[in-house]
Here is the input.
Amino acid sequence: MTAKQIAIVILSALGGIVLTFVFNFLILDKILIPDPCYYHTHDTNKVFDIFYELTSSDGYHPFPTKFNFIFTATIGAILGLKISIYKLKKRDARKTTKA
Here is the structure.
């Protein structure tokens, strides 16, 4: 791989991470937690507890756990890498057919 291709892969991975965080915290959170005060009087399930915690510093409103941050970043990096590798292979195939 050339330096340009490596830079494209790294930037795509970072872009994927940013996009998954935006999706997770601006869209998915609003769908999964429409009313954060709901959890003042209701219990949470185990899956919810893996991704969110209810701390007193946040007024017992759901706040993403470290696992949620790591999981989101990992998914974003994987998606960014897959897309960049696909695009690079597609571009290389196009170059070889032109020559």
Summary: The CA atoms of residues 43 and 49 lie 10 Å apart. The helical segments are 3-32, 46-51, 66-98. Strands lie at 52-54, 62-64. DSSP finds three helices and two strands in the chain.
